[in-house]
Amino acid sequence: MENAHIKEAMTIAFGNLYWQLRARLSDMKWLTVMKVRGVEYATRKFESEIHSGHHQFRTRKATLATALVMLIMIGAIMSVSTLGSLVATQSVSNSGSITIAPSVQLGVYSDSGCTVALSSISWGTLNPGATLTQTIYVKNQGNVAVTLSMSVDSWTPSSASTYLTLTWNLDGFTLPAGNSVQAVLSLTVSSSITGITTFSFNLNIAGTQS
Questions:
Q1: Which of the two residues, 11 and 106, has the higher pLDDT score?
Q2: Do 127 and 58 sit in the same domain of this protein?
Q3: 195 and 120 in one domain?
Q4: Is 36 inside any structural domain?
Q5: Among 181, 104, 108, 99, residue whose Cα is nearest residue 142
Q6: What distances in angstroms separate CA 64 from CA 30, 56, 72, 78, one per listed residue?
């Protein structure tokens, strides 16, 4: 702020000296014309004025030299003031976070390493009253924890749902993002089953954001 006031004062002083210098140059030009173009009549009539003009010219010449020196000094001071300005820099650390939209995705696999995707299960031949089990692996491939559930639909024939029951051990289980878990499926055949020799159904495993 102090440097700004100094520069403003120097600018005003420089402007004033500029106009004074311009006025001095204008007077010098007139005096030169008077000296070169003066005729005999004018010389006799204005002899005293010319002598006086020469004296004023010498005085103004000295004043002009002083003004030029002052202009040079002001310019030098302004340059030094500009070059000598102090600069303070303050670094401000910034940080933040990005909100990632929740993603829910499940994978079902036949191996514990979750490398072989499971698309179908064969239960083979079952006897009335028997219970068979199958081991599968469920992986949470999303970015949020999920609660697992299982359902069955699309029975063929439709009456098979009366005699066949599928359950598992992970109902209500919370599976963290990126983790996998072993699931045991159990298919029980009613001892009273009749009229059904083959069957099929769809197994649906769902993950609901916890």
A1: 106
A2: no
A3: yes
A4: yes
A5: 104
A6: 15, 12, 12, 21
- Torsions phi, psi for 134 (to 5 deg): -135, 140
Q: Give the pLDDT confidence of 81-109 residue by residue, as tens digits.
A: 555 578 889 999 999 988 888 899 999 99
User: What is the identity of the amino acid at 170?
Assistant: L
Residue 23 domain-assigned (yes or no): yes
pLDDT digits over 131-144, tens only? 999 999 999 999 99
The answer to the question of residue 9 being in a domain is yes
Whether residue 115 sits in one domain with residue 75: no
Which of 126, 105, 131 has the alpha carbon at shortest distance from 200? 126
pTM (two decimals): 0.56
Beta-bridge mates of residue 207: 148
- What are the backbone angles phi and psi of residue 91, rounded to the nearest 5°? -85, 135
178 touches 146 (CB < 8 A): no
The residue segments making up the domain with residue 173 are 106-209
Q: Does 52 fall in a domain?
A: yes
